[in-house]
Amino acid sequence: MRIESATSPRLIAFGDNDVDCYETTGMMYPGGNALNVAVFARRAGADAAFIGAMGDDPAGDHMRAALRAEDVDISRLRTGAGRSAHCMIRNSPTGEREFLSADLGVSIIAPEREDLQMIANAHAVHTGRSSHAVPHLPAFAEDSRLSFDFANQTDPDYIAKVAPFCYLASLSGAELSDADVISLQSQIRALGATWCLITRGEKGAVLFGPDTEVSVRPIAAKVVDTLGAGDSFIARVLVGLLREEPAQALMDAAAQTAAETCEQHGGFGYPAPIEIDNTHAMPIGQVHAHAAKLAARAMQRNANKSVPAT
Q: Are 40 and 160 in contact (CB under 8 A)?
């Protein structure tokens, strides 16, 4: 595993991507946790790459163009026949969002040998719950440091599968009490995670690590849209840890980045009129179960490729 720090660390983001489609405005924006982290890490000065899959459709064209504009390495990005992932969103007047429906399209993939080689040569790899890459975490963490976004997933069995491989474990804990936060981070770090970041909405965020407990309050912002704020926070914290910045300084910088994210629509901008195939969309409650099936199929396809022809 690479253990040195770097001024411009090499960071690979693997997995989920979509266009976030706003019902009220008719506009779509590039998004998805892994894609957002790649972009925000690049903006923070990292050498960032994104590995994922998009369709050969207008939504995919738009996301690829945005990644190129942000100077994110997409040399391992797949473009496949079919639909790019999308999510339909309704925003409230306060900027909070309601997820209405989604289509995963071709976005759920398993890593290929070349992906693992790229990850092995990086300082860190980021993925998360929405990428459905848990079976691949041992391979990711073997030669690189793993950053994983649990989102709001606090199920003990799930944590037990993931935390042992984590360098940085991030969770969304706006609904957690102070006691819950302490208990959760203790559980995660006892299982092997070096750092644990818990973002708490209006309560700010707290970072736990070796001899470290650092909190930060939210920075005042004219909130337009909260989408992507958590991803931008994670990216800035991860880049700061890789640079070995002081914990309080990197948390202050992450809070500033998140505040700026909230002052614009979409995760990181790039609006375009919605142009998607919505005929395969499903309710949000069904998305993760469907994604698990797609992930299993992707693993099987990769396994079949590795079997020599007879």
A: no
- pTM exceeds cut of 0.85: yes
Among 121, 141, 114, CA closest to 4:
121
| Token couple for 65 | 């163009």
Please give the backbone phi and psi of residue 29, each rounded to the nearest 5 degrees, phi first.
-135, 145
Q: 41-100 pLDDT, tens per residue?
A: 999 999 999 999 999 999 999 999 999 999 999 999 999 899 999 999 987 776 667 889
The encoded tokens of residue 178 equal: 């102070």
Beta bridge partners of 86: 19, 103
Region at 259 (left for phi over 0; alpha for psi -120 to 50; beta for the rest):
alpha
**What is the structure's pLDDT at 284?**
85
Tokens describing residue 235: 């990216």
Task: Give the chain's count of helices (H) and strands (E).
Answer: 9, 16
Alpha carbon separation from 306 to 112, 113, 130 (Å, rounded): 10, 10, 26
How does strand 86-91 pair with strand 97-103?
Answer: antiparallel
And the tokens for 19? 């266009």
Within 8 A by CB and 6+ apart from 75, the residues are: 49
Cβ atoms 140, 125 nearer than 8 A: yes
